[in-house]
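Exam revision sheet. Question 4 asks you to relate a sequence to its structure. Input first:
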Amino acid sequence: MKVLLMFRRNTAVSAVIIISFLLITDFPEQGIGSVDSEAKKRHFTFSYELSISDIPREANDLKIWIPFPLTDRDQNIENYRISSQLPYYTYIDPEYGNNILGVKSTGKIPEEVKIKLDFEVTRREAGPLTEERTDNHGADLRELGRFLAADRLVPIDGKIAEEAKQVISDDMSGIEKAQAVYNHLTQVMRYDKSGTEWGHGDALYACDTRKGNCTDIHSLFIGMMRACGIPARFVIGFPVPEERTAGEIPGYHCWAEFHLEDKGWIPVDISEAIKHPEKKEYYFGRLDPNRISFTVGRDIPLEADAQYGRLNFFIYPYILINGRPFDNAEYSFSFAQK
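Answer key, structure tokens:
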């Protein structure tokens, strides 16, 4: 996929802008892989709000980064509306192809800053496994090496490699290896957010404790897949409650994808399969439409040269004031069915 998104800066002090994205693709509008026209869909508006308060009076350098989603094979994003009292710009991160909104302000900084993103989403059910799902988010399929390499919290050697060897064999096909790892993790892992170490996407923590949330469980899956030579990647966004038509969304949800040459990227949602054992078969190669994806990858660079560091994963706003992380911010997420 080619994405034509020009670097753009809003120079107004206060503005509300409609942003349009031109996506040049080789697939029909409803997504790659000839997605079944009978597939389940959801159409809703989504709001992402950030409020930063009690900014120190001596503050003279403010930087903010916020992720926001792109249209891809499983979702259409349109009618962006960005409200910000400060100038902003948008760019595509060169490593993963994520869409990022940035704010850089120097001099006199307001004591309170508010930013709001609104947009419309059409999300489709992903799958089934029999469909070809070529990539259309960021990474060139000729450059899959990034998704075979280790991340800071996702090693591919040591315990992770040993865990993979216990459940796969050399004579298995790629899909058989993925199925074996998936089945293994749905059996041995617990979705458990007790304690304080969960939620960092730490594959070793998940391997050692046999528990964690969606970030930890899928990090272990990704590490094991990469250890046996299959590209795999981390995808994060938000759940959209199936039983509701509007309301607040309390937090993120993530899943994983692995790549096979003859199939493209294939999704798995192991944490949902653990919570809903009756859907174990479904979540290998399928995803329900009750979600929205925002970003792909781990150790995500802030700006093209990563001069401001890398984020473990990117779903919530990241704020620097006078060069230091600033946490006195509130953010909220909501949706309304169309």
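Marking note for examiners. The domain at 2-125+304-337 is CATH 2.60.40.2250 (Immunoglobulin-like).
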